[in-house]
Hints:
Distance between the termini: 28 Å
Shape: elongated
Number of helices: 3
Strand content: over 45%
Structural class: alpha/beta
Amino acid sequence: MVFVPVAGSIKKRVSVSLDRRGKERKMVVVFAGRGHDRIDLDLSSIHKAPETKGGIVVRGVLRDCASARVRGLIRIEKNAKKSEDSMEGRVLLIGDKAKVDISPYLEIKNDDVKASHAVTVGVPDQEQLFYLRSRGLSEEQAVGLLVDGFLGQSVAGQQDKRVGLECGRVKKYALG
């Protein structure tokens, strides 16, 4: 797995090359922006050999006036038969001025593959916030709990302590 934590303004390009038969590699990107941060990410998963498996998972939180542009490319070359890949992007916007442009792209040069993409952008669920507030949490604590769960989904099940620490750093940054 390739884990990419991003907190604050940055321009970053990350590419995974699946160039050996049967190779598997997943990319997980967790980002947070606040204030006037600008995040610019170019992500790619390139399949050059048959029977490869990839995946791009993107989770982000933007607050205040922060913005992000995320481009995710899955390219499956002609000789990469029976390869599989997907991109899933989810971004949580906190504040009415935060914005995101997240674009998945598929370049498929072979018809014997599986490839998909999905993107969702949303705001904190008001019913969930109300429920948490009715249990004695402040607005800030309730939002923090939602953000923690939202970003934590991306790295659930990871045994690497560094991944957990870095994800925690991104969460802390997101909550300001």
